[in-house]
Amino acid sequence: MEFKSDVYKTFDEMTNDASLARRDPNYTYVPSSEKMIKVVRQPSQTTLITIEKIKAQRRLEEHFDRGGSQVSLTLPNEFD
Asked: Is 3 within the bounds of a domain?
């Protein structure tokens, strides 16, 4: 499949935005010895992630509105 976009130069740029757009601004997961632990983010982190998330969502929307390649991506929540 050939990647087409007026917004992104590469497929990797689009997948990075897709990952940003689905991040949970309130929590992150930290590895422990045997499992992932859900940790509350600091307010400053929440603000920055929310801003980046909104920007990524807008770029993705523009990409699709302009007829860019559509890809279905699914990542486990542990990658947030």
From this structure: no
Query: SS3 of 68, please?
Result: coil
Prediction pTM value: 0.76
In a domain, 25, yes or no: yes
**Per-residue pLDDT tens for 51-66?**
999 999 999 999 999 9
Contact yes or no for 60/14 (Cβ under 8 A): yes
Query: CB–CB of 27/39 below 8 Å?
Result: yes
What is the count of structural domains for the chain? 1
DSSP string, 25-59: SSEEEEE-SSSEEEEEPPHHHHHHHHHHHHHHHHH
Instruction: State the DSSP code for 32.
Output: -
